[in-house]
Design brief:
The structure is a single chain. The chain is an alpha+beta fold. It folds into 2 domains: 1-92; 100-204, Ribosomal protein S6/Translation elongation factor EF1B (Alpha-Beta Plaits, 2-Layer Sandwich). 55% of the residues lie in helices and 20% in strands. It contains 5 helices and 4 strands; from the N terminus they run ααααββαββ. Strands 1-2-4-3 form a 4-stranded antiparallel beta sheet. Helix 4 (108-122) packs antiparallel against helix 5. It is rod-shaped, with a radius of gyration of 53 Å.
Length: 205
């Protein structure tokens, strides 16, 4: 007697032998879940492992960029200092002349000695040499970088000698201005020229 198919299937489902067979759907799902969880775990822990390395690389690159910038700035400063050093060496010999041209104090006695020396070199006789009061610093002139005082001289000599003296005073090392120049021929028919000169000498405050 042959059982119908429906009964056979019903009997198989109730059979204890089916319990021994693996559940393919459940096993496949477990494996898939295991793989996914493993991948997530590796990604999670890998991120924590890689993150410090990435941060270190970014920091080192930033420091390298900053170091390059600093090195460039230092190189530029060194080049500028070297250039200034060379320029100073060129100008060093002229510094005493520049300082003497505008002294830090009136140095009246030195100016008088220089004028006397110039008159002697020009071959003229000084009959008068006078200096006047030094300019007084006031609140209005306190911001000025220099002060001054005036001087006057009277000299006698030949025409060319008088011109030489005027030229020498105009080109003397110290900064002076010639404010008044008067030349007169003496009335004694000797051909002697008399020079009356008034000027201003300057010095630093």
């Amino acid at each position: 007697m042959q059982l119908p198919n429906s009964k056979i299937l019903k009997n198989l489902r109730q059979s204890k032998y089916l319990e021994l067979l693996p559940n393919l759907k459940q096993e496949k799902a477990q494996k898939f879940t295991s793989v996914v969880l493993t991948f997530i775990a590796l990604s999670f822990f890998g991120l924590f492992a890689i993150n410090p390395t990435i941060s270190t690389i970014v920091r080192l690159r930033r420091e390298l960029t900053d170091n390059h910038f600093t090195e460039k700035q230092l190189t530029q400063k060194i080049n500028n200092l070297s250039s200034l050093g060379r320029q100073y060496q060129v100008l060093e010999a002229d510094i005493p002349y520049v300082t003497a041209s505008m002294p830090k104090d009136p140095q009246i006695s030195l100016l008088v000695a220089q004028l006397q020396s110039l008159a002697k070199d020009a071959g003229v006789d000084l009959s008068g040499l006078q200096t006047f009061q030094v300019e007084v610093t006031t609140p209005k002139t306190a911001q000025k970088k220099f002060s001054s005082f005036t001087f006057s001289l009277i000299a006698e000599g030949g025409y060319n000698n008088i011109l030489k003296l005027i030229d020498s005073i105009s080109n003397m090392q110290r900064v002076v201005s010639l404010d008044i120049i008067a030349i007169n021929r003496k009335s004694d028919q000797s051909g002697t020229i008399q020079l009356s000169l008034k000027g201003t000498a300057y010095f630093k405050n």
